From TrEMBL:
SUPFAM superfamilies: MFS general substrate transporter (SSF103473). Residues 22-502 form the Major facilitator superfamily (MFS) profile domain. It holds the Pfam family MFS_1. Its main location: membrane. Belongs to the major facilitator superfamily. EmrB family. Signal peptide: none annotated. It is found in: Cell membrane. This is DHA2 family efflux MFS transporter permease subunit. Keywords: Cell membrane, Membrane, Transmembrane, Transmembrane helix, Transport. It is a multi-pass membrane protein. The chain crosses the membrane at residues 21-40, 60-80, 87-107, 113-135, 147-168, 174-195, 207-226, 238-256, 276-293, 313-332, 339-359, 371-395, 407-428, 480-497. It comes from the Bacteria.
């Protein structure tokens, strides 16, 4: 490997050690952001009592974080162009950590919602910047391994978040769900400050206020629509119509505005869309979010609502899926660049489809191994998809466009996840109602085998509860079948991806500071 040079200054002799320290530091930053997307979920009932909030109000603790992060994510590229990547990274880590302290100290609902908004705003850049930095500090032949490390950091949050959140809440207090970020954030801040070389801001672009405003409005409206749609019975509510109209109008204005401005002058650099591999990567990461992340949201709720699993146990039996993901990522990181990426992706999607087929055979009588093994297999499939997809997406993207490219990539993944979760939850509720109505058609006083079950109100209520459980289980199975079919339909689309050409190693721009 050639000695890296940045701003005319050679990298230090212990370049390998510094690269490892950079990796550790930025992955700590990634982990705290990924954790906070899910770690607070299991603590909501405790927060509700402590903050004297209603069931509807306490969900804003989650919604405020999601919406703020979604709106702020597209800002990452422009901020790095204006102020420099290292400065934005440090500001994001510091702001996120301080906002976590404010969350833990909150005494009212309004205080914690404002603090969570700040968390979302400052945390939005952490995942895309960690991905961009890992691509910058590694030569091209090691991008597969770098994306494997990044993928493990991104995935550890959704996997460990509920389990860690449940343990902290039960063993200490819900406030420690946020205080846990303080030592991790401090270590990440020091590592980024100490080991990443500061570089000049590359372009000094003028801020496109209209483009940002219209894009922010459309993203915010979409997230609100998806988050509250099921609760509002979708388009039966005025709120949903308002959100849909705002989404359509603001996004139409954004597209028209972006298309009529010169390249580099709009908030979104549409030159990204001229890169075929990048556009294909956006399509597939949207599908990954839609199918795979939505599926991960189904199993914990099924275990808790239908089978009476406590939150901690539900987290423990679903956590092994993360082991499968990490094993696959470690293996596939070494294969990227040696094996056709489309083959790796095809195998990953096929393994994922097999796990979904196994889940579609679930019944109300399940052992813990029946839950663990399909989860591990699904984790293997996800790992085989995530790493080569990331490597292929950015293989032909110029380094100066990585900050914006990774931000849009993360945004599309999150939007796909939000849409997928909203889809499966809506189908779950509606299919449960449909199946329940179908089953109750056979419950009549003329059916002699059911007369004893209708003899008293208590017996009738117990029978109705059992019918509801059966209907819910069928609805969960229907969701798994849908995800299975969608995953199979994705595989032929892999031909859209062009294998990146083998090229010389790239130079490393972020070596040690001294």
């Amino acid at each position: 490997m050639s000695t890296a040079v940045a701003n005319g200054v050679p990298a230090a002799a212990d370049d390998g050690l510094n690269r490892r320290m950079i990796t550790v530091s930025i992955m700590l930053a990634t982990i705290i952001q990924a954790l906070d997307g899910t770690i607070a979920n299991v603590a909501l009932p405790h927060m509700q009592g402590s903050l004297s909030a209603s069931q509807d109000q306490i969900t804003w603790v989650l919604t405020s974080f999601i919406v703020a992060a979604a709106i702020a994510t597209p800002l990452t590229g422009w901020l790095c162009d204006r102020f420099g990547q290292k400065n934005i990274f440090l500001t994001s880590v510091a702001g996120f950590t301080i906002a976590s302290v404010l969350c833990g100290l909150s005494g009212t609902l309004s205080e914690i919602v404002i603090a969570r908004l700040l968390q979302g705003v400052f945390g939005a850049a952490l995942v895309p910047l960690s991905q961009a930095t890992l691509l910058d500090i590694n030569p091209r032949e090691k991008h597969g391994s770098a994306m494997a490390v990044w993928g493990m950091g991104v995935m550890i949050g959704p996997i460990l978040g509920p389990t860690l959140g449940g343990w902290l809440t039960d063993s200490y207090d819900w406030r420690w769900v946020f205080f846990i970020n303080i030592p991790i954030g401090a270590m990440a801040f020091y590592g980024i400050w100490r080991y990443i070389r500061k570089t000049d801001a590359p372009r000094k672009m003028k801020f496109d206020a209209f483009g940002f405003a219209t894009l922010s409005l459309s993203i915010g409206a979409l997230q609100m629509l998806l988050d509250r749609g099921e609760q509002n019975d979708w388009f039966s509510a005025t709120e949903t119509w308002v959100e849909a109209i705002i989404l359509a109008l603001s996004f139409a204005y954004f597209i028209a505005h972006t298309a009529t401005r010169p390249a580099g002058k709009s908030f979104f650099d549409y030159r990204l869309l001229k890169n075929a591999n990048y556009v294909s990567g956006l399509l597939f990461i949207f599908i990954v979010g839609l199918v795979l992340f939505a599926t991960r949201a189904l199993t914990p709720s099924m275990l808790q609502s239908l089978m009476g699993y406590p939150a901690k146990i539900a987290g423990l039996v679903t956590a092994p899926s993360g082991i499968g993901t990490m094993i696959a990522m470690m293996m596939v990181g070494r294969l990227v660049g040696k094996v056709d990426l489309r083959l790796l992706l095809g195998i990953g999607f096929a393994i994922t489809a097999f796990s979904l087929w196994q889940m579609s055979r679930y019944t109300l009588v399940l052992s813990q191994s029946d839950i663990v093994w399909p989860g591990v297999i699904q984790g293997l499939g996800l790992g085989l998809v995530f790493v080569p997809l990331s490597a292929a997406t950015f293989a032909t993207l110029s380094p100066e466009m990585r900050a914006e490219g990774t931000a849009i990539y993360s945004l599309i993944r999150n939007i796909g996840s939000s849409i997928g979760i909203a889809l499966v939850q809506t189908l779950l509720v509606r299919n449960t109602q449909t199946v329940h109505a179908s089953l109750t058609e056979h419950i009549t006083t003329t059916n002699p085998s059911l007369l004893d079950n209708l003899a008293t109100p208590q017996a009738a209520a117990a029978l109705n509860n059992e019918i509801t459980r059966q209907a819910s289980m069928i609805a969960y199975v229907d969701d798994f079948w849908l995800m299975f079919i969608l995953t199979l339909c994705v595989i032929p689309l892999l031909m859209l991806i062009r294998p990146p050409a083998k090229s010389a190693p790239v130079t490393v721009d972020h070596a040690a500071m001294d």
